[in-house]
Each structure stands twice: as C-alpha cells, then as structure tokens.
Design brief:
Number of strands: 0
CATH architecture: Up-down Bundle
Order of helices and strands: HHHHHHHHHHHHH
Strand content: under 5%
Pfam family, one: Aa_trans
Number of domains: 1
Number of helices: 13
Radius of gyration: 21 Å
Helix content: 55-70%
Shape: globular
CATH class: Mainly Alpha
Mean pLDDT: 81
Membrane topology: Multi-pass membrane protein
Organism: Thecamonas trahens ATCC 50062
Protein name: Amino Acid/Auxin Permease family
Low-confidence stretches: 1-73
Biased composition (Polar residues): 38-51
Length: 468
C-alpha cells in the first residue's frame, strides 16, 4: 500500500507505546497521540517506567536508555497484537476533533485530505521502519532522536527530542482543556478556567507517582471511552439530528485548510511507536502489511466519524464533540468516565516531559537527601505551567491544530523524510528522491502555514472572547 522493504535483524525492544519516547502506553496523543492516543496496557511488551528508567534522549543527544537489551531478550509480538497496538494507538483525542476540522474545511475537501494524510503518514511510517532495518547491522536504533543523531549529529538528535518533548507537553495541555470543557458542560456553575484550577492539584498529586504501573490499565479504558463516544455520537446523530441534503453542507473551503492540517496531523501521529513496534515483531516480514492494515482501518474510522460528525451537527459542530451531545444519563456517564480516565493518564503523558526536565535541572543533585522534594517541586511547576497555558488558550480545536502543525508535523512528515534522504541519498532512486523530497517540502510548508494560521486564529479568538 505505502511501500515495501527487506527484513533485517530486529534490534532491542523499547517501550511499546504511542510515543515510544515515553516508554509507556500513551493516550496524545499526539494524540497527537497520534493525539490523546492510547495503547492497551496488555499490548505493551515492557513494564511501565519507574523513576530510574530514562526514556527520552537528553537535550545533548545522548542515548535514551541506560542499557540496551539484547535481541534474544526482546519480547516479541504476534501479528494480531501488533495490529491492535498500532490501530488503538491512533484512536484518541485527534479522532474526537476531526468533525470540527471537517466542518471548517468542507465535506469533500475533508475527505480528500484525510485520504492524503493517511497515505503520507503510512509512507513515512514505512520510511522509519526501512531506516531502522538499514541501520540495524551496525546500530540498534529504536527512536527518532537516534536516527537524527546518525543523520545530523547532536543537532539532529536535539531537534527530534525537542519535537517529541513539545508534542508531549502539548498533549498534556490538550488533556487539561478537554477535561475542563467537559466538566464545565456537566456543571456550568464553574467556568472552564475554574475547572482547570480545580483539577490542577489532582494532576500535581498524580505527577508525584514514582511508578506508572498502577495507571497502565487506564490506557485501555481510555480507548474504550473514546469508542463509546463515537458510538453515542452516531446513535444521537441518527436519532435526534439526522442528515440534510448534501447540497446544504460546505463542500470545500481552502481558506480553512491550515486548521484542518494541524488537526489531521494530530490524529495521524504514531511515528515514535513504529520503531520499537518493528523491533518487537515476531514476524518482521509482515510488519509492512500490519502497518498498512492499521492505517487503512484508522482511515475508515476517521473518515466515517469526521464526515458523519459534520453531517449530524453541521456548522454547529464543536471542537469537543461531546459538547454537541444532548443531555442524558448516558452522555453524562460517558463524560464523567472520559474525565476520570484522562485525568489518570495525564501523568503518563507528562512522564517524558518530567524525564527531560529532571535530567536537565536535577541530574547533579540525585545524591542529596532533598532530591525527592526537589523532584516533586519541579513536577508541580510543570503542571502549573501546563495549566496556565490551558487557561490562557482554552480552545481545544485550535490548540490541537497548533500542536499538530508545529511539533507533530515534524514527527510525522518532516523529520522521517529529512533523515531518510540524508542517510541514504546516494543509494536512492530518482523516484525515491522526488517522492520523499516532495513530502518533506509539503510537510514543512504545511507546518509553517498552519502554525501561522493557528496563531492568528487563536489571537483573534482570545481577543473577541470567542469559544469553540
């Protein structure tokens, strides 16, 4: 579907998560994953991280793990578990924001863009696997930052790590906004910013956990909750809203394409998962087919939900689509469940941010008796900053788009193609150079244009007091 490659030796298995930089099941993300992306806890072949398992490359471009496992020690995944891991990694907050994006860009342009994004995302996933296998004889590569190190030295590693860092921090902000918006819809007595203030102490307390093992099951629950929301939207849409004549809907609005770019990129980001996924494959010769199947499945889900969400609610489609649902016991239960599981998975999203910050600021203080207090203080500051951003920009749709445009686009489109071209330029065919060069240019231009657009839209929305 997107390409093929020869099987090489599998390297050590790293963390199996939506963002492998995390080393834990991710709900970004992205959703970034992706999105508020999730991977079922049982699919993860490695234990949840603890205080002594550094998982992100340091700003200096150092190794991500303190020790490398040998190939014979690598837990292996079968084809079906691998397919489920990839597919569920996509499903999250990016999915729930898609109807909002389609409402702005139009029905048919939205459909075309989703197909294009799926094809480009699938292709760059294959590029990363191909890159890992080409490097496997000499280098045990499991992370994008390590590929960046080989391609451009410390600068490449730093850029890749920074993109992952900003993506995870953005996921945390998106979590906070999403939870606060839903709580406000349940109890409107308190404004969204007040809800952010009330959930912040809970986030701080959870950030102090030294092991995330206890929270791993919430990743599976988050997938279930998101899919229940999808089912409720379809049930409510067909029962209460219906579908009007297609001519009454917006067909295409190119001026809103930058907004859709960011939201779509946010939804198709699982690229930091694919390297450890391939390394853990029990049958690496079918990894390509597994990726194709996962991307195809997600494209069907995204297309159906994005288009029908817009068909149901039209121009009134909200960024947090749960806010379009009528008040009922079921909807209330679903909203509460979403808020609970996303609150519990917040520290999972925050973990890589914490690792980088503590390595940068506290690495020389580990032997001090007050080290644990300093850790807690730093984590509290991180959460407060994230909550401050959520209060300053309480716009889930636009913030998700900005994150997708600025940092996620780098992980999905720009860096995989850039590193691949740099490492293997001499042996690539002309067609490979043209194709991957085009994706790089399109990704870079789209990222810049979408970022500028989103910043302007956010500024206008905040100035006018407009909500989503």
């Amino acid at each position: 579907m997107f390409g093929s490659y020869h099987t090489g030796r599998s390297g050590a298995m790293g963390p199996n998560a939506v963002d492998a930089e995390m080393g834990v099941p991710q709900v970004a993300t992205v959703a970034a994953t992706s999105s508020i992306n999730v991977v079922p806890g049982q699919a993860s072949p490695t234990p949840s991280p603890t205080e002594h398992s550094p998982l992100l490359a340091t700003p200096g471009g150092g190794r991500i793990h303190a020790a490398e496992a040998k190939e014979e020690e690598t837990p292996k995944q079968g084809v079906l578990p691998g397919y489920m891991t990839l597919t569920t990694a996509f499903v999250g907050g990016g999915l729930l924001a898609l109807p909002f994006g389609v409402a702005h860009v139009g029905l048919w342009l939205g459909l075309g863009c989703l197909i294009l994004f799926a094809a480009m995302s699938g292709h760059t996933l294959h590029l990363l696997v191909r890159t890992r296998r080409k490097l496997a004889p000499k280098h045990n590569v499991l992370y994008l930052s390590e590929i960046g190190q080989l391609a451009y030295g410390k600068a490449g590693a730093r850029v890749a790590s920074l993109a992952a860092f900003l993506t995870q921090a953005g996921f945390c902000c998106a979590y906070t906004i999403f939870v606060a918006d839903n709580l406000h819809s349940l109890i409107p007595r308190f404004a969204t910013h007040e809800w952010v203030g009330m959930v912040t102490p809970v986030f701080i307390a959870l950030s102090w956990l030294r092991s995330l093992r206890v929270l791993a099951p919430t990743s599976t629950l988050a997938v279930v909750c998101v899919m229940v929301v999808v089912a409720v939207v379809f049930e409510s849409g067909f029962r209460h809203e219906g579908i009007r004549e297609l001519s009454s809907y917006k067909a295409a609005d190119v001026t809103s394409l930058p907004l859709f770019w960011g939201i779509a990129a946010f939804g198709f980001c699982v690229h930091n998962l694919v390297l450890p996924f391939d390394a853990s494959a029990r049958r690496p010769e079918v990894s390509g087919a597994t990726i194709n199947a996962a991307v195809s499945t997600v494209l069907v889900i995204y297309t159906a939900f994005g288009l029908f969400g817009y068909l149901f609610f039209g121009s009134a489609t909200k960024a947090v689509i749960t806010l379009n649902l009528p008040h009922s016991v079921l909807v209330t239960v679903v909203k509460i469940a979403l808020c609970v599981v996303l609150t519990c998975t917040f520290p999972i999203q925050l973990f890589p941010v914490t690792c980088v910050m503590e390595e940068a600021l506290l690495s020389s203080r580990k032997l001090r008796p007050t080290y644990w207090l300093e850790q807690n203080a730093l984590r509290a500051v991180e959460v407060i900053i994230i909550s401050g951003v959520a209060i300053a920009i309480p716009l889930f749709g636009l913030f998700s788009s900005l994150m997708g445009a600025f940092s996620v686009s780098a992980v999905v489109f720009i860096l995989p193609t850039l590193f691949y071209l740099k490492l293997f330029w001499a042996e690539l065919t002309t067609w490979d150079k043209i194709l991957n060069g085009s994706i790089f240019v399109l990704g870079a231009v789209g990222s810049v244009v979408a970022t500028v657009f989103d910043v302007a839209e956010i500024a206008n929305a905040l100035k006018s007091g407009k909500s989503q």
